[in-house]
Amino acid sequence: MSDSIVPNLEHLRKRAKRLVKATPGLQLATAQHQLAREHGYKNWAELIRKVEVKTISPEWPVLQRLVEAQRFVEEGMPAEALTGILWCLEEATKEAPRHIGVHRTAIVAALVTLARSYPPAQQALQEKAENIRLIANASADEVADLLPGGSPRDKGAYRRYQRAFQSAVRGEKLPEALSELLWCFDEGMKGSPMMRKVRRIFVSNAMGRLGKTYPPALEALRERRGKIRLNWQNDAEDWRDLVAINRALGEDPLTLEFYDELKRIGAPLPDPRWIFDQLVEAKRYADAVAAKPLQDHLKRFDDYLVNMAGPEQPNALHIGYLAAISAKQLEALAGAGDLTNARVVVAKMLQADNSPKTVETLSSHAARAGHPELISVS
Fold it and tell me: Rounded to 5 degrees, what angle do the CA atoms 154, 226, 68 make?
């Protein structure tokens, strides 16, 4: 394939799906392989790698890997999260990809947050001190100017967030740092979808981290949580904020308690998918299955495999994530007594990967649900 001809990645994925719909019996992997050969590549994996490099967008792949790392944390996979964050950290200290500059602070924030509960991340903080120093000393103005597709308001908000986070990391001007973080959370980052993600994932965690040495930050988070609870209107954004605040405070169980309280008084309930993991952890399996039925899991599995992993042979991070969500779905179904659908989840995951690590992940959750017999690999 000529280097000057670069197909659109999203177009290729949609075309592969259209081929499957138009051709009875055609599997997605086969359609992807045909498209790869058509464009002069050996397989879909090679095509994806080449196209991603050639058509790299400001939000890919670093921000995607950061969001993926956050998902790994939420799924109880700190090792996978650390691997992704360290990859981002290495990319952020390279000179060539200018667009990565905008994510520097978010990368450090993700690593620092993970280090609070995962010792290997603490070690990584020490080992990567030079990388972090380079990032922390980056000009907030320079980084904000690189914000892709952002409005002047977005750029200004990100600039203020970066400066505040850098002050917090250095232990300087903590009251001012908190004031700026609160402005970002309360006002400055409620506009674009990208800023809302930064606000919930990174700004809230930055305040949680700041609270370890400056308690007013924790008080501010609890105050905002209290207002959400007091003025509850079943707003989706408020619900996500509540989940994010409790996570930043290290008080995840309170999210489930609030949901139960709403249920007891007959109030409208928010999206229960946000508490699926907590329901599984509490062994409330029937509630967990109701929160995320089998079809939701299967769609999430397939969508992730196609849109995030992409290649015919996903890497270890992708497999680890799929194994984690499958294991929890398996546990929920088995614990609720739906062994038939639990076996569907097992079969689908083992078809994608039947490595010892995947089998171990599935086995531990099957045993936790009281059905170790569900896992058997010939």
Answer: 45
Query: How far apart are alpha carbons 120 and 116 in whole angstroms?
Result: 10
Say if CB 272 and CB 259 are below 8 A apart. yes
C-alpha torsion sign, points 131, 246, 244, 157: negative
Using the structure block, give the residue that is written with the tokens 């359609």.
31
- Read off the tokens for 205: 């965690």
- The domain segmentation of the chain, as residue ranges, is 9-54, 62-274, 275-355
| Model pTM above 0.90 | no
Owner of token pair 């905008």:
102
Buried b (16+ CB within 10 A) or exposed e, 221-254: beebbeebeeebeeeeebbbbbbbbbbbbebeee
Residue 375 CA to residue 377 CA, distance in Å, equals 7
pLDDT tens per residue across all 378 residues of the chain: 333 334 556 667 777 888 888 888 888 888 888 888 877 778 877 776 665 544 444 444 566 677 777 777 776 778 888 888 888 777 665 543 444 444 566 777 777 778 777 878 877 776 766 556 555 544 445 444 444 445 677 778 887 887 888 788 778 889 999 999 999 999 888 877 777 877 887 889 889 989 988 999 999 999 999 999 999 988 988 999 999 999 899 898 899 999 999 999 998 889 999 889 889 999 999 999 999 999 999 988 887 776 654 444 556 667 877 888 999 999 999 999 999 999 999 999 998 888 898 999 999 999 999 999 998 755
Alpha-carbon gap, residue 134 to 155, rounded angstroms: 21
CA–CA distance, 256 with 243 (Å, rounded to integer): 9
Sign of CA dihedral 152, 156, 157, 159: positive
